[in-house]
Amino acid sequence: MGRAVTVATCALNQWALDFEGNLERIFRSIDIAKSKGARYRLGPELEICGYGCSDHYYESDTLLHSFQVLEKLLESPATQDIICDVGMPVLHRNVRYNCRVIFLNKKILLIRPKISLANGGNYRELRWFTPWSKARHVEEYFLPRIIQEVTGQETVPFGDAVLATKDTCLGAEICEELWAPNSPHIEMGLDGVEIFTNSSGSHHVLRKAHTRVDLVNSATAKNGGIYILANQKGCDGDRLYYDGCAMISMNGETVAQGSQFSLDDVEVLVATLDLEDVRSYRAEISSRNLAASKVNPYPRVKVNFALSCPDDVAVPTCMPIQWRHHSPEEEISLGPACWLWDYLRRSKQAGFLLPLSGGIDSSATACIVYSMCRQVCLAVKNGNADVLADARRIVNDETYIPEDPRELCKRVFTTCYMASENSSQDTCNRAKLLAEQIGSYHINLNIDAAVKAVVGIFSVVTGRTPRFSVYGGSSRESLALQNVQARIRMVLAYLFAQLALWARGMPGGLLVLGSANVDESLRGYLTKYDCSSADINPIGGISKTDLKNFIQYCIENFQLTALRSIMSAPPTAELEPLVDGQVAQTDEADMGMTYAELSVYGKLRKIAKAGPYSMFCKLINMWKEICTPREVASKVKHFFRMYSVNRHKMTTLTPSYHAENYSPDDNRFDLRPFLYNTSWSWQFRCIDKQVNAL
Predict the structure, then answer these.
(1) pTM of the entire structure?
(2) 3-class SS letters over 596-647
(3) GO:BP terms for this protein (predicted)?
(4) First to last CA, the chain
């Protein structure tokens, strides 16, 4: 009868504009799918050119090279006898669309353009593409000559249609369409589509994976059916990490789960499922069947091919499984680590350099690099030849086999404690002990000579010598002296990144890692062009609260006991003079707010879209047990003053791993002015009026 269908989906580590590498990974996924008996293979969104091409989508070269890759796929024997569903940009009647190109045995069956474009947060698809607005409408697409010569087709169907094979019916969704309130799978399911596919370019955010899984499962829970999701994975050239999680679901339950974080460039999931389970599930949902009897039908592209075999009664089918979600601490340990590995190997550098202060933020960054080394060793142990080849190239040793994370850390990770006369022995010892436990190559240096030289130049020119406030100087003098120390550390970090390996007789340079967390960036509690200015920052999208929990996770799971004293110490910049040899400066006192409060402000400002007045109105209820309305007003005003005064710093913020939806990243996620009227006179007057009324 033909009831057991075998389908494959994948997570591919594609790279924007890496047509050669992208083609090779697509071929590998098809080979794996066929070897496991699959008759249909689904890939991620825009997998041919890579999702993150941004304004390169405007270039005709991107379209040309995408079709050249498609030509290679069509003419290859590897793509025979399997329906292949690949993603690429297509220009139709001078309009650019984000498309799925579905083909079988050198014939294009359908080009399906995306209907709902992602255009919020990190996504700007409406900048480059136009949504297909003609529901259930198909037009003729005239193929380029290079494709015509392979397929023998002059035109192919282009539009909103579904595929009707000998045994079932398939309909495509593309990423955002699953998240839309009027998802196509609803109407397609009512029209008899039994297999839904979704090719995604969905990035990692802490605590987001369950939302995606729930959406996929709910897509078939009410309507029945099989749902197949493919996703991009890895760093394809910017701040986002695409977190895989390819999956297959049937009738509201997961039957196959892909990894969320791994160093495998190609991961393929294959499942065999019984179509009769879909049909019997739908049979008893009377409300669904009543709606189905009135649905407007989709155009069907007939395909002379079956996803099942005629004699398949004895073929075993997949059973539901329980999805395992990572904890937020595991996500921090794995996501940024995989992102760093992609950045390191693709930038062709020899490792990382981190200014290690002995505080929570830089220590958390060091732990992420150590976690990366653990992942590399594990991947090599599991036989990942790509990771082994990359590791050997990075360390410049063709015989090297990474087995011990600490030993690999020694080769690729340099940490540097930059002491000043304002640094305590405690932070120096903490940094040194952590470096020993993770295995990094550790440098101790003192910046006092450089600070005195820079301040000396100012004194010679002006005849004035600035002093810290504890020595009678003004707050302006004190802040300037703190900033000089911070900026000199940045200059030295880059000097050592370029020449530290040269001094050791080794080739290559190092990438400088920043370690400002998302809350400090939001408040602007950092010196512009200090050590927060780096090549990349793995924790720039993570809150202080989550970083503390991550440090505790590392103590328990990586046995890094040096972190205990780091956890218990109050966060401090150590830029002001010590008092009796002890640190007198603390971050929260300097900021005038706690890190916990900052997280609340950040979520209300960005996620809840609250301005000063709305934030005040929300907080007088949230904090009614601990603050009076007047105290809340004072806190809100102080936050917005400091946020707006320092917003200009976000324009030069180091590219950071995106992990939080309240990130203040000015590049494309959080678009705001950087020159504000910092008095907020009208807004604050509204707050004062409400305070007086209360």
Answers:
(1) 0.94
(2) HHHHHHHHHHHHCCCCHHHHHHHHHHHCCCCCCHHHHHHHHHHHHHHHHHHH
(3) 'de novo' NAD+ biosynthetic process from L-tryptophan
(4) 74
Q: State pLDDT tens for residues 341-389.
A: 999 999 999 999 999 999 999 999 999 999 999 999 999 999 999 999 9
pLDDT of residue 315: 84
Which amino acid makes up residue 646? N
pLDDT at 581: 66
Backbone φ and ψ for 318, nearest 5 degrees, come out as -80, 145
Q: Are 87 and 112 in contact (CB under 8 A)?
A: no
pLDDT at 437: 98
Residue 584's pLDDT is: 67
Assess contact for 683 and 625: CB atoms under 8 A.
no
Cα distance between residue 605 and residue 590, in whole Å? 22
Helices 595-602 and 544-557: crossing angle in degrees, nearest 10, is 120
The 3-class SS string of 289-306 reads HHHHCCCCCCCEEECCCC
Going through 461-616 in order, the beta strands assigned E by DSSP cover 511-512
Task: Please give the Cα distance from 6 to 40 (Å, whole number).
Answer: 7
501: tokens are 């390996």
Q: DSSP of 428-480, one letter per residue?
A: HHHHHHHHHHHT-EEEEEE-HHHHHHHHHHHHHHHS-----GGGT--HHHHHH
Residues carrying an active site annotation: 45, 114, 175, 357
DSSP code at position 130: -
Look at residue 2 in the predicted model and tell me its pLDDT.
Answer: 63
Res 93: pLDDT: 97
DSSP state, 16? T
Mean pLDDT, each 10-residue run in order, the chain (694 residues)? 88 97 98 97 98 96 97 98 98 98 98 97 95 98 98 98 97 97 96 98 94 95 96 95 97 96 97 96 94 95 93 84 94 98 97 96 97 98 98 98 98 97 92 98 97 97 94 93 94 97 96 93 88 92 94 97 92 74 74 90 94 97 95 96 92 90 82 89 95 93
Q: Please report, for residues 169, 289, 293, 559, the alpha-carbon distance to residue 284 in angstroms, rounded to integers and kept in the order given.
A: 20, 8, 14, 54
What dihedral angle (degrees, nearest 10) is formed by the CA atoms of 354, 355, 359, 363? 10
Contact 52, 22 (CB under 8 A): no
Query: Quick check: helix, strand or coil at residue 264?
Result: coil
Backbone angles phi and psi of 62, in degrees to 5:
-65, -40
329-364 in b/e form (b: 16+ CB < 10 A) is bbbbbbbbbbbbbbbbbbeebbbbbbbbbbbbbbbb
CB atoms closer than 10 angstroms to residue 308? 22
Q: How many residues does the chain have?
A: 694
